[in-house]
Amino acid sequence: MSRISFTDPDTGNLSWFDPKAARDAISEGRNWTGENWIGACSGLRTSRAVLYLTKGGRWIENQDATSEFNGADVYRFLTDDQAHAWLIKSADARRDSDEAEAALKQHFPDTPDEEGPDLGGRPVVGPKVETRVSPEILARIEARAVKEDVSRAEMLRRLIEAGLE
């Protein structure tokens, strides 16, 4: 057994784990900056971070920067959400991302293909229906929409609904 003892920098707690007994060990992907390849999660140039899933089901990130300007070899626990974000960021890297992509699918199978803010657009109300009306009727619809402070489309929906009742 080759245990690694470490002090988690986030909590200050002394912990240990056996990397050989880990269920998974995923190296981060790398991105090209135009000058150097850097780790997608760590930003390291000369080495790469590794994300371990321990036998007990805990996530541990290792950033070994000892070969990069005599930096530190740091281990820290990650929550499931942090590990999920780490894997997404690593899988999105332009190089060496297959390992992270496979781990993401294995450990977080419900990850959607895309996610992000709603950037606007028209809300989906129902299927699109087109019709033609005379300019006079259209002017009356628009005047009523202004009076009720709604869009022309909303006014048309209200008028149709009222006519069907």
How is this structure best summarized?
The chain has 165 residues and is an alpha+beta fold.
Describe it.
The protein has 165 residues and is α+β, with helices and mostly antiparallel strands. The chain folds into two domains: 4-107, no CATH class; 135-164. Helices cover 30% and strands 21% of the residues. It is built from four helices and eight strands. Strands 3-6-7-8 form a four-stranded antiparallel beta sheet. The chain has a two-stranded antiparallel ribbon with strand order 1-2. A hairpin with a 4-residue loop joins β4 (30-32) and β5. α1 runs antiparallel to α2 (98-107) and α3 crosses α4 (152-164). The radius of gyration is 27 Å and the shape is elongated. The model has no long low-confidence stretch (mean pLDDT 85).
What is the number of domains? 2
Give the spatial strand order of the biggest sheet: 3-6-7-8
Number of strands: 8
Low-confidence segments, given as residue ranges, are none
Approximately what portion of the residues adopt beta-strand conformation? 15-25%
- What is the succession of H and E elements? EEEEEEEEHHHH
Over the alpha carbons, how many angstroms does the gyration radius reach? 27 Å
Largest sheet: 4 strands, antiparallel
- The assigned structural class equals alpha+beta
User: How confident overall, as mean pLDDT?
Assistant: 85
Which term fits the overall shape?
elongated
Number of helices: 4
Distance between the termini: 77 Å
State the helical fraction.
25-40%
List the helices and strands and how they pair.
Layout lengths: L3 E4 L6 E4 L6 E4 L2 E3 L4 E3 L10 E4 L5 E6 L8 E6 L1 H12 L6 H10 L27 H14 L3 H13 L1
